[in-house]
Automatic annotation (TrEMBL):
One of its GO terms (biological process) is osmosensory signaling via phosphorelay pathway. Pfam families: HAMP, HATPase_c, HisKA. This is histidine kinase. It is an enzyme of class 2 (transferase). One of its GO terms (molecular function) is protein kinase activator activity. The chain crosses the membrane at residues 189-211. Keywords: ATP-binding, Kinase, Membrane, Nucleotide-binding, Phosphoprotein, Transferase, Transmembrane, Transmembrane helix, Two-component regulatory system. It comes from Hymenobacter rigui.
Amino acid sequence: MSRGLSRWWPRGLQARLSVLLVLLVLAVSGGYVLLLARSTEKYLAEDLQKNNRLLAASVAEVLQIDEATNEIPQPALRRTFDAAMTINPSIKLYLVGLDGRILTSSAAPREVKLTRIPMAPVQAFLAGRQPLPIFGADPRNPAVARPFSVVQLHTRAGQPHCYLYITLGGGAAGDEVASLRQSYILSTLLRTLAVAAAVVLVVGLLLIPLLTRSLRRLQAAVRGLQAGDYTTRVRGIGAGDELGELAATFNDMAARTEQAMHTLQSNDRLRRELVANISHDLRTPLASIEGYTETILLRQHLLTDAERQQYLQTILHNTRSLKRLVSELFELSKLEARQTVPRPEPFSVTELVQDVVLKLAPEARTRAISLEARWEGAVPFVCADVGLIERVLQNLLDNALRYTPAGGAVQVLVAAPDERHRVPLLVRDTGRGIASHDLPHVFDRFYRSDQVREKTKDGLGLGLAIARKIILLHEDDLTVSSTEGSGTCFTFSLPVYAPGDEVLR
């Protein structure tokens, strides 16, 4: 758009639509008026030519061609022309040769501007196959085509002699009648058009704000989202059209943006908690290692062998805790980055469970906890990464043993395959359970409830997060159910091995 046009062109969509509507109505009205004018002229010309179609033939009846000269006597021709023009002053009569040359006319010689007229309209009129009106040349005014009447004159021997060519509507009376008719018709149609255009403009200008109301709502919602209000939504726009689809798309985008912002805020909070927890879990063993090491170095001549051995055992325990923390952090990061790819293979899940239970049996006896594995009937082979599943079972059982008091029980149950062709595994304990407000966070990294932190300092809060990541890699989820004071149960499932399954080595 040019600069000159952009100066007065409105900026608002509603104003632009209003201006466009006015311009469109004016353009359509102007085109309609022009079409009416041309149609009226054509209709009047058709009516005039149709009513005077036989005029030339009736005039030709009084004309007699002289047998001796083979011409029409000029006095008789002049009398006939004068009589015809007296009856109808709007006509002009011409004798035209077979080649279109004008032989004589009722007009004065100085008024005739043409010496020859085109014969194609004459032939079309005489043939009668072309619809009226047919316009021919006006010898007095070559720039204006007029309706006409024509007839061919013959000699007494029947030979074509010339044409009697009569132009219609060229006189003052004819023009006045046509002007009056045209004025009446156009005035009526123009009044009708003015009323219709006014109605269209009023209705259109009233409807435009209603149509743009949805856009204004969408604009307000976009501005709200831009200002940081991620809860803003577009309401009041029905579905079924482009605006409704646009509003639904915006609402979906806003919902995704809000969810993404919540996720970012949650991740930021978790990041801060992660840094704080890592700092805490690293600081405690490092401070212990530093303190005992300094004690050994500064008081090495004063320490007994038993004290030195105790200090070294404490240093070794803290070193192993640090090693375990670093190892679990590395393992969790690999799982979250999907750098760890499961290598499924068929194996007996009951044998794996039995091996893990036997491995942890000494610790269970030390804690005075009953640890057992149970299954009923023959359990089919499963297809999974045996190393990763062993890590899941070890983490779950280690977590159960840690938070189950002496005299309690921990059980691993291998159930029969379900309708999904998966083998469910349940790890139950009779510990103190998990509080309802802590239950949604048990799989979060470094998460430990305040009660757990008071009871133990061994847990680093990564075992359950690692276990769940591993189960997610096996296309299932690790779920938990717990009742405070009654114990906790972790559940997951493994796919049943079929002979046709692909095994990765």
